[in-house]
């Protein structure tokens, strides 16, 4: 049995596509409420599907519903699709706020006039085509003006989609001046059939791109969770290891050097014992903020574990690392944290500094030396900066058992 792709069949397929993808958008939005605009896109699909149903019921229902309401619903659906996309991405177009309603009102007036006062199928086709094309070009314009879309491939696909569909309806508008005017829209010809297929294309591709963008954001969020320390908001040890791998490879290729600073809050266990872990957590957050404020943009700071933190300083030698560590030490010593109006905590920290040497087989060798230097700083009385390559304490470089901090 063959399927006749007439207007009624195409209208029903448009309704089915729109209903399925609209329900999918609402279900996805319910599962991921953090994404704004997806419900708006789903509502647009429902309106396009509803317009398709009304078009397919031509001659079975009143002309106002099958012509005026049907075409208005489809155009409003397109408006809601690009408004949802704009909201999802974070685009704001001032002219769109007033232009889209004007287009809808003008279309409604033209459709009503050329349906009930001066019936003219061809003029209705021309009016719908130019308004639909304008809506598509508004969508493309917003995406073209927004240069910070995370996935440029998705952005190009959406722009191409709006431009292609808009260009098709412009062609349909121009072609309508050269073809014989139809006496009934249900027999309006091949281009009108393609117009319904273009609506299906718009629904399918826009939903695909929306899910693609949201999946990218979820993936980035999971990546951040895996790399960011949840308490302090800075990198964790895993992320620090990745950064060191990259910096060590750069040092091998170009002969540059880098410094690593390990630091440890002094007597942190006493703070936890006296004031509770919630105060200790706030102290860790404040100290992490101090570290972030004292480094360059391309430096890396991470929480190594407990009250230990580590910094990676690219293109720095030990002398420069010592200067940075001393600045942080002085800032930390001068910091007094007041919490709950009755708890005052004075901080201090110990620092160990080391830098990459040409003979190092791995960056962990630098970290090992920085860790030994940190132990030396704590052994000497804390609240100081130590570099074993320049210190003269005669300490061994092997790690010794850590004393309680």
UniProtKB/TrEMBL annotation:
It holds the Pfam family GGDEF. Residues 256-390 form the GGDEF domain. It catalyses: 2 GTP = 3',3'-c-di-GMP + 2 diphosphate. SUPFAM superfamilies: Nucleotide cyclase. Its EC number is 2.7.7.65. The chain crosses the membrane at residues 12-29, 41-61, 67-86, 98-117, 123-145, 157-178, 190-213. CDD domains: GGDEF (cd01949). Keywords: Membrane, Transmembrane, Transmembrane helix. InterPro entries: Diguanylate_Cyclase, GGDEF_dom, Nucleotide_cyclase, Rev_trsase/Diguanyl_cyclase. This is diguanylate cyclase.
């Amino acid at each position: 049995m063959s399927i006749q792709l007439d207007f009624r069949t195409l209208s029903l397929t448009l309704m089915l596509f729109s209903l399925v993808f609209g329900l999918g958008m609402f279900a996805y939005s319910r599962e991921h409420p953090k994404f704004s605009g997806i419900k708006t896109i789903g509502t647009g699909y429902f309106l396009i599907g509803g317009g398709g149903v009304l078009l397919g019921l031509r001659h079975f229902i009143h002309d106002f519903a099958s012509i005026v309401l049907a075409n208005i619903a489809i155009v409003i659906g397109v408006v809601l699709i690009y408004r949802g996309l704009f909201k999802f991405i974070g685009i704001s177009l001032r002219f769109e706020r007033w232009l889209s309603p004007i287009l809808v009102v003008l279309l409604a007036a033209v459709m009503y006039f050329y349906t009930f006062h001066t019936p003219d199928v061809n003029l209705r086709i021309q009016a719908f085509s130019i308004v639909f094309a304008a809506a598509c070009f508004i969508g493309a314009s917003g995406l073209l003006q927004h240069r910070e879309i995370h996935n440029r491939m998705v952005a190009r696909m959406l722009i191409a989609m709006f431009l292609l569909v808009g260009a098709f309806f412009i062609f349909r508008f121009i072609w309508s001046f050269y073809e014989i005017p139809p006496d009934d829209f249900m027999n309006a010809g091949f281009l009108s059939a393609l117009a319904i297929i273009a609506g299906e294309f718009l629904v399918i591709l826009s939903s695909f791109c929306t899910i693609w963008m949201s999946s990218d954001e979820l993936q980035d969020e999971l990546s951040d969770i895996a790399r960011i320390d949840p308490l302090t908001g800075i990198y964790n040890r895993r992320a620090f290891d990745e950064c060191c791998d990259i910096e060590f490879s750069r040092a091998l290729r170009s002969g540059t050097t880098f410094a690593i600073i390990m630091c440890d809050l002094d007597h942190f266990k006493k703070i936890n014992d006296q004031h509770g872990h919630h105060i200790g957590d706030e102290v860790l957050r404040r100290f992490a903020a101090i570290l972030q404020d004292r480094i360059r943009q391309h430096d890396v700071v991470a929480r190594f574990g407990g009250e230990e933190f580590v910094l990676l300083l690219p293109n720095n030698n030990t002398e420069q690392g010592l200067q940075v560590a001393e600045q942080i030490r002085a800032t930390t010593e001068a910091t007094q944290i007041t919490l709950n109006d009755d708890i005052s905590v004075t901080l201090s920290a110990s620092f160990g500094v080391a830098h990459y040497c040409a003979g190092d087989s791995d960056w962990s060798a630098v970290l090992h030396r920085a860790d030994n230097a940190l132990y030396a700083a704590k052994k000497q009385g804390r609240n100081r900066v130590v570099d074993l390559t320049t210190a003269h304490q005669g300490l061994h470089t092997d790690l010794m058992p850590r004393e309680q901090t």
